[in-house]
Each structure stands twice: as structure tokens, then as C-alpha cells.
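Re: the 516-residue chain
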Amino acid sequence: MFQANTPSRPNRIPGTLELEISDPVLMLNEIARRYETTERVLMEYVDNALDDAEALYVEHNQRYPYHITIDITIDAAAGAVTIKDNCRGMSRDVLERVVKNIGESQKRGVTWVNGRFGFGVQAFRAAAEHIQFQTQHQTSSGYSLELDRRQQRGIKEAKRQDDPFPTDSGTGTIVTITGFDPDWSDFSVESVKAEIEHHFERLIARPGLTITVGESGQPSRQCTPFDYDHIEGRSIRRTLQATYKGETYPIDLHLVVAREKRPERAVSFFVRGRRINDAVQIKSFMRKSTYKTRLWSHPHLLGYIEAGELVQPAITRDDFNRTYGRQLCYETILTLEPEINTLIKPVNQAGKNQTLGKLENVINEAVAAAGAPDQADTGSSTPASVAEAGTTPAFSAESTARSDGDGAFFVIPDIRLVTELPPTVGVENRAYLVDNTIYINIEHPDFQERLAYTRQRIPKITDRLTAYLAGLISIYYPAQPAEVTTGLEAQVDTIIKLESVLHQQQAELAKALMNS
């Protein structure tokens, strides 16, 4: 049973103190609350099965001696989840030890398995009341053992089971979790399957291993690995070498700069085939990075980094412990950042061009929506600034015209965003007018100063930019309202209308850019 608040043992060294846990159940339950989802709790038991399978894999020269199956069954009516494997199983002694001896995992020091703390067996406490283990090892009888979340004393010893074990190998382990809390019952076959495919994607890619998820009485669905080789784009596939204390540690990477966005497949760290976390979510890694989130959270960058034996996962297995091995691992990986950034640059440029195209469309829609005033058909002269730029007269007879409702017609100019200016236009010009088209110089410092960027250096519209554009366009805008008597007042009126409409378009533009 658990070691509770007991008197000091007779063999205690005189003059010393001993650590005691007054309420081990409370402590375990509090640690279990570090898990955020039921799916993540269930992964601990799938992970234990995979650790057992890994022993077979290593013993047989990196191959499974027979087909390994891990089946997860959700019984909604009974409020239960069962994880069954056909691996080696456990003897009675091992079964009782993993339940009662917290922090004494026999996996410590075994490089090819993932568990180190012996805590995964207790993960059910975060989500449910009860857990049952049934197991069969080839060298012993079968045994079962049950544990409740609130139990500290009185845990019954493993009970012998003489019935044939229900797997094709005759060995393995069945874990059944029941009594899920209402707040932890929002999982499904699809969500558990997705978590397995995300968390164990490197292991389920191996031949000879099948993991399935299904509802009781229904056909199960097989978990499948993500296929990076079929993603269109540029890839980096390397095995880096890091030397530590005279030993060489491999770090395997497969990164892809995809043609299309794949934000749901962010670059992730793995250790021994198990996902730890997105690279961008590991703060210690981001602190070391030069390019930081604008590279590692880029929606076109996906892939995996298998860190292997060089790092130590934290107890919750979503981060790494602070060790020199971690530092060396990061430094080795980050030597690839310039190469990755080089592959991302064309994607960013294409995104920038696409964004500017959308921005251009929004500006034209705003100009059209702002309407035009009554005096547009009076033959007003071309603004002096246009003539000074050496451009042709504005608003020719071939232009698109629109009625103002009183029979008068005015011309709506087109707006174009340009990066290259013709020889007749100086680089100091913010904008110029040619054949009813207002060309806006987006390379001008005034434009760039008001242009914001995403982390991936994709431009986005802001309030400062809309105000700048409204003022700039108003200089060349052909209209003057009938009720306004001076050109300056007409221009101010035009600025206000254009800025208002451009501001209204910002939300739609942001949505379009997000989905582009």
C-alpha cells in the first residue's frame, strides 16, 4: 500500500529527518490534474502498451516478432474505456509494484522506453474514479487488480485469473477505466484516434504494429500515420549528430515547407516515437532560436524532430528537463534555421503578393462604395500634382462611368499598388495618375511606415494605413460634392468618406487573409 504518515522507522539514522507524505492520494490526484484532456490521460496507457511492445522490438533486432495490436474500445453505455494489447504482459509482482510503488519505475535507465517516473499508471485519477488491470505473462498465471481514486489503504492484492487471456498471443494487458467525471466525458472515437495519430505518429508508421479505436459493438477504426512524403513542397530530411561525453547521439528531422498551409501539422518534437510538443510551444527552444515564432509557427512549415536519447521529457511529457543534453540538442537543430528560412522566403513573398492583391481589391471596393459627387462631370482640371508627375490627363472618355442619380456622370478611378515606378515618375512620389488609374507606391517610406506585418512577414491593413490611403487617394479623386464650395473642403469630405469605407472593410480583409 501507499506509504503514509507513519512513525519514524527504527533504522532511521540518528540526527536525521525523513520525508513523509501525509496524504499520498491527495498528492497523486493533484499531480494528475496536470493533464488537460481525457485523450491525453488515455495516451498514458497506450504509451505503457507501446513500451512493452518496444521491449519485443529491441529483443528481436528492431522488428516485432509477431503482429502487435493495441485496441481501444469506448463503451458509452457503461461509461468505460478499455485499452487492450497483446504484448508481453506482467507477472503478479510487476503488476502490484507498478500500482503501489510510485516513482520507482523499472524503466529508468532503459534507453528504448519512454516511461521514467512510474506515474503513468496513476493518470486515470485526473478523469475517472476507477481502474482495473488484467494481465498475463507467458511465465506466470493471469492476474487482475483494481484501484479507486480515493484509495490509500485496503487495496486488494492481485487476484489470480485462470481463464485463457483474450488475445491471439495469449499474453498482454487489459486496462479498463470507469466512472468518468462529467467534465471529462467529452471524448469520442474520433478525438481519441486523432490524439493517437498525433501523439504516436512515428511509431504507428512502423510495419507490424496496429492501433485501433472503436465503440463497443461497432467496427474499429485503424490509426494511420501522417504521410509527409506526399506533401507538395520543399523538404529537409537529415540525421544530425550531437556528441556528448564521448557518445554520438542522432537527431532525425523531416521538415517540409509546403505549398499550401498546414497549420494543424506544426513542427513537433518527438522522443522515442512519442510526441512531446509543438516546437513553438517549447519556450526553452524558442529562447534559443534566432528566427523564433516567425519561422517555427509558419503555417507552411510542418514536420517532426526526433530528439532521441539526448533529452529528458518532463513528468507531464510536454516539455524537456533542463540539462546540458537539451542545450546541445537545441544548438544542433538551430544550425538549420538559415536553410529553413531560405526555403520559406519564396512562400512569404508569394503570400505578400497575394495579400497586396487582396488589399488592392479592398481599396477599389471602398472607392466605388464611397460614391462620387455631383460636380464630377464639370470637366474639372487634372490636379497639379498629377501634371507635375508627368502623367497623362485623368478620366478619359473610355473610362467606366457611373450615374449620380441626377443624370450626371462621374468616373471611378482604378487603384493599383506598385513596387516599381516608370522612369517619368520619381521615387519620392507617393502616388501618380495614369489613364484613370491611381498608382500607389508601396515602397515609399510613408507607406511602409504605416504597414504592419504578421509574424510571417505578411502585410496587413491597419487604421494608420487606411487613413494614409484615404488622404492619398483624395488628391486624385475626381469628385467634388455639390454642397461644398471649396476644393479643400471637397477633399476633406472625400477623405472622411474613403477612410470610413476602408475602415469598414478591415474586418473582411482580415478574414480573407486568414483563409488565404
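DSSP finds twelve helices and 20 strands in the chain.
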